Amino acid sequence: MRWDFRTRVLLVVVAVLLSLAASLFAALLAYATGGAGNQALSWGAGTFAGSMTIALGVLVILLS
After folding, report:
1. Alpha carbon separation from 38 to 22, 23, 33, 58 (Å, rounded)
2. Rounded to an integer, what is the distance from CA 58 to the centroid of its chain?
3. Cα–chain center distance at 4
4. DSSP state string for 25-45
């Protein structure tokens, strides 16, 4: 099945939004457990990078 360009863009936008939600949750969790602002920022950034990598990998597999 061939996916058109608009569908691919919308799937990438969904992946970005899910990664942002996961990173926000991780940052809030790190901050709530007594971590400093730098620790919360690094947890959020790491979670965003990891979840975005996984989401785009899954999309590559599904859309190819």
Report:
1. 17, 14, 13, 30
2. 12
3. 23
4. HHHHHHHHTT--HHHHHHHHH
> Contact, 26 vs 47, CB < 8 A?
yes
Helix, strand or coil for residue 48? helix
| Average pLDDT over every residue of 26-40 | 91
Residues 6+ apart with CB under 8 A from 51: 18, 19, 22, 23
Q: Within its chain, how far is the Cα of 40 from the centroid?
A: 16
CB 15 within 8 A of CB 56: yes
pTM for this model (two decimals): 0.86
Per-residue pLDDT reduced to its tens digit, 15-32 = 999 999 999 999 999 999
